Amino acid sequence: MGVIQTSDSDTATNDAAFRAEIRDWLAENLESGQFATLRGTGGPGREHEFFEERLAWDRHLAASGWTCLGWPTEHGGRDATVAQQVIFHEEYAKADAPARVSHVGEELLGPTVLAFGTDAQKERFLPGVRSVDELWCQGYSEPGAGSDLAAVSTSARLDGDRWVINGQKIWTSLAHVADWCFVIARTERGSTRHHGLSYLLVPMNQPGIEVRPIEQLTGTSEFNEVFFTDAVTDADLVVGAPGDGWRIAMGTLTFERGISTLGQQIRFARELADIEALARRTGALDDPLIVDRIDNAWVGLRVLRAHALRTMSEASTDAGGASVSKLLWANWHRDLGELAMAVQGALGLVTDPDDLTAWQRLYLFTRADTIYGGSNEVQRNIIAERVLGLPREARP
Quick one: 183 and 274 in the same domain? Predict the structure, then answer.
């Protein structure tokens, strides 16, 4: 029996049906009922908003089969195509659905375990990620290694049937609500740079872990410091081989900058449209310089989308695609925050510190966009050294 080929028209029909299905479901579940008030809530700088309600929403998504769409069906996913995953994120953003609280588990940890984890790790952790019964945080950055992951000093030593972990992580998003953390730690004594690192899965609810909130310019505290003092995790909760943590960590970063960025871009487009509407109301649109900045932002969005689609295509082998993507969206969004302030004029400078406007919060939080997740400087070094083959930057 020959292999059944699916025509382009069949694919287009299936994708259209999929788009209609998720659009109708979102409309039905967000227009009335317990989740109707959650539209537009949460997200960067606003993770404190309706957290418990958004957690319930995420679990409702899971119960309805709308989490982990690209995962294989044997692990609870839909085996959705890349196109269908893009459609989901686009429709989710268009519906102004609440920001997900399970992003780190679903978009980072889950794909990493699927790609590199053991069967036992998949059986143990994937169901909790898919159902949103276990929340995750990312233990990468450190006070002396903010964007230079290879410089981490948090250590872990194998003691019998468990790892004993000591050190500190910083800028750990949502660590205060997480059940688990994937931690990059140095497990080979005397090792340097990207050698001797391991990728450990560590339970957060234990005496050896202390979480301290970091108050941001926005007055909120979604970032945290995490201190490990003889914290422990089981010996078999290392993803990949001990010492192979660098490769696994880079895999996670690739997943982080994947399909969901297209949904992010739709949220960016909504912000830009709102700024243009604000410019019309305030008269700022009469200023040709403001018009030029709005036009440039519109063009920049198209560049973001084109790059995202290119790097997700099977034909793309650009190893620096993730770093280019981070540079593009982080700088674009920072500039958008500055544009919002320019459109408001002097009124944008008047505020109650305890009650920032949406535009003031956007401006303040986007100052961090070019730092977290890998600073601009580090991303440019990655592109220069690993893609273009330029000489390494001198390091102390």
Answer: no
Rounded mean pLDDT of 226-245? 95
Q: Which residue, 266, 253, 254, 256, is CA-closest to 89?
A: 266
**CB of 335 closer than 8 Å to CB of 292:** no
Asked if residue 377 and residue 261 are part of one domain, the reply reads: yes
Specify whether 280 is located in the same domain as 328.
yes
Catalytic residue numbers read 256
The Cα 75–Cα 272 span in angstroms is 38
| Cα dihedral 65, 68, 74, 76 sign | negative
What confidence tens digit (pLDDT) does each residue in 272-294 have? 999 999 999 989 999 999 999 99
Burial (CB count <10 Å: 0-12, 13-18, 19+), residue 25 = middle
Task: For residue 373, give the nearest of 202, 257, 271 by alpha carbon.
Answer: 257
Three-class SS of residue 319? coil
Task: Give the integer Cα–Cα distance in Å for 284 and 346.
Answer: 12
Domain extent at residue 187: 136-243
Tokens of 189: 């004594």
